[in-house]
Design brief:
The chain is of the alpha+beta class and 246 residues long. It has helices at 2-16, 28-33, 58-69, 78-91, 117-123, 186-198, 217-224, 230-234, and strands at residues 21-27, 47-54, 100-103, 128-130, 148-150, 159-170.
């Protein structure tokens, strides 16, 4: 079983990392352990899974080449279809394995997400999920405050795209690593949550720490453009995009 898990991880990295994606393995049980039953993934606790992130370089390495090849096709949502394209190709590398893919934007019939992306990123060690409970002196009163993941290298300049699950590979030996707590002070955590909840459109929360790489100006322009108008930037015709978190 260890050999199968190692082969799966190696194949995924060979297929995705060159396109600006990042992978983090986890046991499904780590995820289920921190959530209420309605949000559990219906697999045994030791089941192997991988959280898939896109880093800033994905835009140039995967997205733009994908769009260039699709110019004559009708595209509903270029970013989603690019991610789906690359992960679907990955499945072809595992003809003898079952691989289940849940995307960050997919919903169940009851309108609950198929998986909670930020929770998965946190338990896999990919990025620290900062929430209201991480602030001791809560200044927000009755306001609704959403949490946000911060990556130790990219800050907020990344996105959680999917979780890949290998239902026939069990990994009781997999060691869990805590995510890097890179926003360590009370003051900075309050600042992060303030920026994310009330000023997210100015990009500033993404630079709450010093980062290795951030989105290019071209990439920022694309994501700052209203979804329905992004097709014009790409020279495409299409319907309304979803307003994805990027």
């Amino acid at each position: 079983m260890e050999l199968r898990a190692a082969r799966a991880e190696r194949s995924l990295r060979d297929s995705l990392c060159a396109f600006g994606f990042e992978l983090h393995p986890l046991q499904v049980g780590w995820y289920n352990a921190v959530l209420q039953p309605p949000f559990h993934l219906a697999y045994p606790d030791n089941t192997l899974a991988f959280v898939v992130l896109s880093t800033p370089s994905m835009f140039d390495k995967a997205f733009k080449p994908f769009v260039n090849k699709q110019l004559l096709k009708r595209i509903r949502d270029p970013v989603d279809q690019c991610i789906s394209h690359h992960l679907s190709l990955v499945k072809e590398h595992f003809p003898d394995e079952k691989v289940h893919i849940f995307y960050d934007y997919e919903m169940l019939p009851n309108r609950k997400p198929k998986f909670l992306a930020q929770t998965a990123a946190h338990v896999s060690g990919a990025a620290y999920y900062y929430q209201r409970k991480d602030v001791k002196c809560d200044p927000w009163g009755e306001k609704k405050i959403y949490g946000v993941c911060i990556h130790p290298q990219y800050g907020g300049w990344f996105a959680i795209r999917a979780i890949l699950i290998f239902p026939e590979i069990q990994v009781p030996f997999l060691e869990q690593y805590a995510p890097v707590d890179c926003v360590t002070t009370e003051e900075r955590r309050i600042q992060l949550l303030e920026k994310f909840n009330f000023h997210w459109q100015d990009w500033s929360y993404r630079d709450i720490i010093e980062v290795k790489e951030r989105y290019s100006e071209e990439q920022k322009t694309y994501f700052a453009t209203p979804p329905a108008e992004r097709f014009k930037l790409l020279g495409l015709q299409g319907g309304m995009q979803r307003s994805e978190f990027y």
